[in-house]
Specification:
6 helices; 66% helix; Growth Hormone, Chain: A; mainly alpha
C-alpha cells in the first residue's frame, strides 16, 4: 500500500485549517487604494489637466463619461472600455495604468462574488474599427480625453465604493 499521499495529506491538514478568506473590507480598501494610485498616475501625466471630463469632443463620443450611479458590473464594463482604448494608445504613459485597471477589475470581481452578484467579465466596446481612424487623426487628443475621463470615472467609482455599490 502507498502511504505517501495519505501522510502528505495528513501533514497538510493543520496548515489548511489555518487558512482564512480575505475579509471583504480589505478587498474594498485595496480597491480604494488602487483607484487613488491610478488617479495619481494620471495626474503625473502633465497634459491630462487641459481638458474637462465633461467637455464633448466630436469623434470621441465612444469614450465613457460620468454616469450617475455605478453598479459593480457597470464599473467593470466602464473599465473594460477604457482598457480597450488605452491599449491602442502609445505605451509610454499607459502601461502601468493598464496593469492597474486589470487589477482593479479583479478586485471588483471579488467584491461582486462576495455579495453574490452575477458578474460576467465585460469585454468592452463591441466595435473598434472607427477607433483606428480616430487614433491616426488625433492621437494626442484621444489620449488626453481618455485619461481625463478615466480619472473622473475613477473618482466617481471611489465615491460609489464608499457608499457600498449594488450588483
Amino acid at each position: 500500500m502507498h502511504w505517501g499521499p495519505l501522510c502528505r495529506f495528513l501533514w497538510l491538514c493543520p496548515c489548511l485549517a489555518y487558512l482564512q478568506a480575505v475579509p471583504i473590507h480589505r478587498v474594498r480598501d485595496d480597491s480604494r487604494a488602487l483607484i487613488k494610485t491610478i488617479v495619481t498616475r494620471i495626474n503625473d501625466i502633465s497634459h491630462t489637466q487641459s481638458v474637462s471630463s465633461l467637455q464633448r469632443i466630436a469623434g470621441l463620443d465612444f469614450i465613457p463619461g460620468l454616469q450617475p450611479v455605478l453598479s459593480l458590473s457597470k464599473m467593470d464594463e466602464t473599465l473594460a472600455v477604457y482598457q480597450q482604448i488605452l491599449t491602442r494608445l502609445p505605451p509610454r504613459n499607459v502601461v502601468q495604468i493598464l496593469n492597474d485597471l486589470e487589477n482593479l477589475r479583479d478586485l471588483l470581481y471579488l467584491l461582486a462574488v462576495s455579495k453574490g452578484c452575477p458578474f460576467p467579465h465585460s469585454s468592452g466596446l463591441k466595435t473598434l474599427e472607427s477607433l483606428d481612424g480616430v487614433l491616426e487623426a488625433s492621437r494626442y487628443s484621444m489620449e488626453v480625453v481618455t485619461l481625463s475621463r478615466l480619472q473622473a470615472s475613477l473618482q466617481d467609482m471611489l465615491q460609489q465604493l464608499d457608499l457600498g455599490p449594488r450588483c
